[in-house]
Design goal:
Blueprint (H helix, E strand, L loop, with lengths): L13 H11 L14 H9 L6 E4 L4 E4 L13 H4 L13
Length: 95
């Protein structure tokens, strides 16, 4: 991955690293989707424990079952408990 960079990766210029990352990470997940491949799926994949069955809530610092998740009922975990909108791009996608 980094071999295409000059002096990779330790002495690479910030601009070169930025260009590589930007050109190889092009997908933008929909915030919500009825099909596979939205933010819910990504959060479960990246914030789960080793079993993949639980996700960690940042505010409470606890693991809870990944499924089901909350889509507006406030009965289960929701995206704000994993990665608050205030720490990211909100619902509008890339900034």
């Amino acid at each position: 991955y980094y071999s295409s960079l000059p002096n990779a990766p330790l002495n690479t210029a910030r601009n070169d690293m930025h260009a590589l990352i930007k050109s190889t990470h092009r997908d933008q997940l929909p915030y919500s989707s009825s099909s596979y491949g939205d933010v819910w799926d990504a959060l479960i994949a990246v914030d789960s424990d080793a079993s993949g069955q639980n996700v960690k809530l940042v505010y409470k610092d606890v693991f809870v079952p990944a499924m089901p998740y909350d889509s507006g009922t406030c009965q289960y975990w929701n995206r704000e408990h994993l990665w608050p909108k205030s720490h990211g791009v909100g619902t509008s996608g890339k900034t």
